[in-house]
Design a protein that fits this description.
With 300 residues, the protein is α/β, with parallel strands linked by helices. The protein is built from 11 helices and 12 strands. The protein has one domain (3-32, 48-296): P-loop containing nucleotide triphosphate hydrolases (Rossmann fold, 3-Layer(aba) Sandwich). Strands 3-6-7-5-8-4-9-10 form an 8-stranded mixed β-sheet. A two-stranded antiparallel sheet has the order 1-11. α1 packs across α11.
């Protein structure tokens, strides 16, 4: 029995939660940077339609370890297709009960170095391949906004600026990308009271506004749960949480401690990352009312 299975059994027993393990297809990490394709994007509200466009340098992201090596693109793309499907189904009510605010998804981990930013980016890229959806990737890591830095937007207004100054609009902070269906909201300029801003009524309004557009999925790359309080603030706002756990590294008590930071009943998917074992299937571990796949990943 794996560390994650043991962790979940103990946590569920302590909370007397009745959870069923559902078997699904094996999932893991990253869509390849496939040739850009032209399609009509899903409609967005005027107030959240980006007015600027950036070009995503996939080679720079690959060098930084946020995209898979070329020889693993096909394998990892297929793995991420399996990871995204239950999240999309829960968000939109496709073949499953629709999760309230399920189109708002936080990707986090217990500790740094488990692969949550790699997962956030590649999950968003994979979701953007859907014909009838658009995706907004939000850098919600106020402590280490790696995505913002790698995209060259560290001096641009972002989420924290929108929260701190009502005069800064979402439209001015969001940027479209040359990947069809994918937009980005930078973290914004550093600010001392980031936790308070992310816990504020203004943040709830912003999150609700972003989630109003039903064909849009919003993926937040969050800070680790046990390192900052910002991640816990974000987790309270969304409908689904994807928690990345590094295989053969993250200890069981650490997983349990991180899960205890989350609201009871919140759908949480646990994804095993960087496993060297070949898994023929995936397991969906319900925590609260949702579940998610274990994953084999080569990401950093």
């Amino acid at each position: 029995m794996s560390v994650i299975e043991n962790a979940l059994k103990r946590l569920q027993a302590s909370r007397a939660a009745a959870a069923a393990v559902r078997e699904g297809n094996h999932g893991a990490v990253t869509p390849p940077p496939a040739p850009l394709r032209r399609r009509r994007p899903a409609p967005q509200t005027d107030e959240t339609t980006p007015t600027r466009t950036i070009s995503i340098d996939q080679e720079a992201l690959r060098t930084a370890g946020l995209l898979p090596p070329l020889h693993q693109e096909r394998e990892i793309a297929q793995q991420f297709r399996q990871i995204k499907r239950p999240l999309i189904n829960a968000a939109l009510g496709r073949g499953a009960a629709r999760v309230p605010q399920g189109n708002l998804i936080v990707v986090t981990s217990a500790l740094p170095g488990e692969g949550k930013t790699f997962t956030s980016l590649n999950l968003a890229l994979s979701m953007a391949l859907e014909e009838d959806l658009t995706v907004l990737l939000v850098d919600g890591d106020a402590v280490n906004p790696r995505l913002t830095q790698l995209l060259g937007l560290e001096s641009e207004p972002g989420l924290l600026d929108v929260l701190a100054d009502p005069e800064v609009s979402l439209t001015s902070a969001m940027v479209a990308s040359d990947v069809p269906g994918l937009a980005f909201l930078p973290a914004g300029r550093p600010i001392a009271n980031a936790t308070e801003l992310l816990s504020s009524t203004r943040m709830r309004e912003v999150a609700a506004h972003l989630g109003e557009d039903a064909p849009r999925l919003v993926v937040f790359d969050s800070a680790p749960l046990l390192v900052t309080t910002e991640s816990q603030a974000l987790a309270q706002l969304v409908g689904q949480i994807l928690m990345v756990v590094r295989a053969d590294d993250t200890q069981q008590h650490v997983v349990l401690e991180a899960l205890e930071k989350l609201d009871e009943g919140k759908p949480v998917a646990l994804m095993l990352n960087q496993s060297t074992r070949h898994l023929h299937g995936a397991y969906y571990y319900p925590y609260g009312s949702g579940g998610g796949p274990r994953e084999k990943s080569s990401g950093a």
